[in-house]
Fold this sequence. Notes:
Distance between the termini: 175 Å
Structural class: mainly alpha
Number of helices: 3
Order of helices and strands: HHH
Helix content: 55-70%
Number of strands: 0
Amino acid sequence: MATATVQQAIVSGRRKSCWTGTPEVYFAKGIDNSRIVKVADPRRAREMALLLCALGCLFLLVMTYAWQHFSAIEYGYRIESLNAQKDGLVEMNRALRLEEASLRDPGRIDTIAKKMGLETPLPGQVQMLDTATPDPSAPVMARVSQISVVPAP
């Protein structure tokens, strides 16, 4: 008897699983929305305009900050470049001053002059061009004097 009830339960379970209810059938139906007109909501439009203004202001602030930041970085690089250039020019100026001092050395000039066959000048052969008080007994180089106007007699 126990086996008969088990078999009936199995058969009845099968029937329930096959017929769970009425089958659902779906039909596609086209919807025509061409006659629908969207109603403008002025409150929503005002909110959107305010949002766009706020985003625009934020964008301008961020771009201004970025522009200033990158300009500061660029100026920093430019200053470093100019400082390096200045240091190079200072070093070159020092080297040129040393070279000028070595070229103006009287001992070097005397040695070169002797190699070229020049002799030491005798007294009276040297004429000083840049003297503050000229020697009255020394010869004077020719020069143009200022024009003076003399009244006619």
